[in-house]
From TrEMBL:
<dbReference type="InterPro" id="IPR036250">
    <property type="entry name" value="AcylCo_DH-like_C"/>
</dbReference>
<dbReference type="GO" id="GO:0005886">
    <property type="term" value="C:plasma membrane"/>
</dbReference>
<dbReference type="GO" id="GO:0050660">
    <property type="term" value="F:flavin adenine dinucleotide binding"/>
</dbReference>
<dbReference type="InterPro" id="IPR052161">
    <property type="entry name" value="Mycobact_Acyl-CoA_DH"/>
</dbReference>
<dbReference type="GO" id="GO:0016627">
    <property type="term" value="F:oxidoreductase activity, acting on the CH-CH group of donors"/>
</dbReference>
<feature type="domain" description="Acyl-CoA dehydrogenase/oxidase N-terminal">
    <location>
        <begin position="6"/>
        <end position="125"/>
    </location>
</feature>
<keyword id="KW-0560">Oxidoreductase</keyword>
<dbReference type="InterPro" id="IPR009100">
    <property type="entry name" value="AcylCoA_DH/oxidase_NM_dom_sf"/>
</dbReference>
<dbReference type="Pfam" id="PF00441">
    <property type="entry name" value="Acyl-CoA_dh_1"/>
</dbReference>
<feature type="domain" description="Acyl-CoA oxidase/dehydrogenase middle">
    <location>
        <begin position="130"/>
        <end position="224"/>
    </location>
</feature>
<comment type="similarity">
    <text>Belongs to the acyl-CoA dehydrogenase family.</text>
</comment>
<dbReference type="InterPro" id="IPR006091">
    <property type="entry name" value="Acyl-CoA_Oxase/DH_mid-dom"/>
</dbReference>
<keyword id="KW-0274">FAD</keyword>
<keyword id="KW-0285">Flavoprotein</keyword>
<feature type="domain" description="Acyl-CoA dehydrogenase/oxidase C-terminal">
    <location>
        <begin position="238"/>
        <end position="386"/>
    </location>
</feature>
<dbReference type="InterPro" id="IPR037069">
    <property type="entry name" value="AcylCoA_DH/ox_N_sf"/>
</dbReference>
<protein>
    <submittedName>
        <fullName>Acyl-CoA dehydrogenase</fullName>
    </submittedName>
</protein>
Amino acid sequence: MKISFSPEDEQFREEIAIWLKENLTGEFEQLRHRGGPGDEHMFPEERKVWEQHMAKAGWTCPGWPEEYGGRGLSINQQVIFHEEYARVGGPGHMGHIGEGLAGPTIIAFGTEEQKKRFLPGIVDGTEYWCQGYSEPSAGSDLANVKTKAVLDESSGQWVINGQKVWTSLAHESDWCFVIARTEPGSQGHKGLSFLLVPMDQPNIEVRPIEQLTGTSEFNEVFFDEAVTDAANIVGKPGDGWKIAMALLGFERGVSTLGQQMHFQNELDEVIKEAQKSGAAEDPAIRQRIADAWMGLRIMRYNSLRMLSGPQDGSLQKEAMIYKLYWATWHSDLGKLAMDVRGADSEVLPEGPYELDRLQSMYLFTRSDTIYGGTNEIQRNIIAERALGMPKEPKGR
């Protein structure tokens, strides 16, 4: 699919570009290009204020239907919004998990009561979400979830026990959507449920995981008799796998175009560094920069193909290759950044050690091929679900 923009779309582009230029100033100026992957620990409270500022102007959740607080933007306009936001250096969204994952899932599968309870807080930027999927023994293999939940009829609550890991921004979140096993003795895809769990309770412990970058936006989350109301289940008991897969489809929505603009900003910084250091005179470096530029264009075109299909969370074949492609591309960009900088980039003069942006980016990109589904798992998904090849034998 090749998206062409109408005069009305271009008028919308001008509208959002002007608003961002006029508003991302003053107290918000320091937030430009901050809070993205590897930098999510920066300015969390200030970024929440920024999102509430955007909400007052109606710029949060712009693709949601108007009846749920969004603007009901067309796909073209959503593409424009995310591209312009990233182009101007809009800070990483503190509420992106709520806006891009929890919200669309509740809209698609939730009850009217759940929509009334949870969607306004996401739109207003007053309630923040994290994702309770991965576990120590169920990282990319979500069907191996061990966290359990039992419905206590006397209290009218689900009682949850287990552990989640790599939970982004759990320490900043008000709610967590949790995949838990609610059918005793069930295995694999069966017996899972999708629960909405409040984080502010004594039976939930959040422990930071320090990364190579020295930051801790990821966490371990322990549920020890944690509770949530019986009504806070999305769908029916046992629907968890179906809903979890739909949510991963929403993850590959129009926000991917904003992610690519963030990548473009990083590539631009690498190019400037290459010109500054003289690395741009090296034909091999120039070729790698050209390859990175072409890879980003391919990523964009595949995303536009991906967006031409249904917006119900179902995964097209084009969507199944997206994570593998961008993770590999971004990991290679991290290596290119360090090679452009030269050997000095690997040494810091003295403690306390503070990484610059390209060093931090390089270290964080080491995780790209792991989180969100490892490259190995992504290749299995492509082989089995996109190409229809025989499934990998179990127990190997």
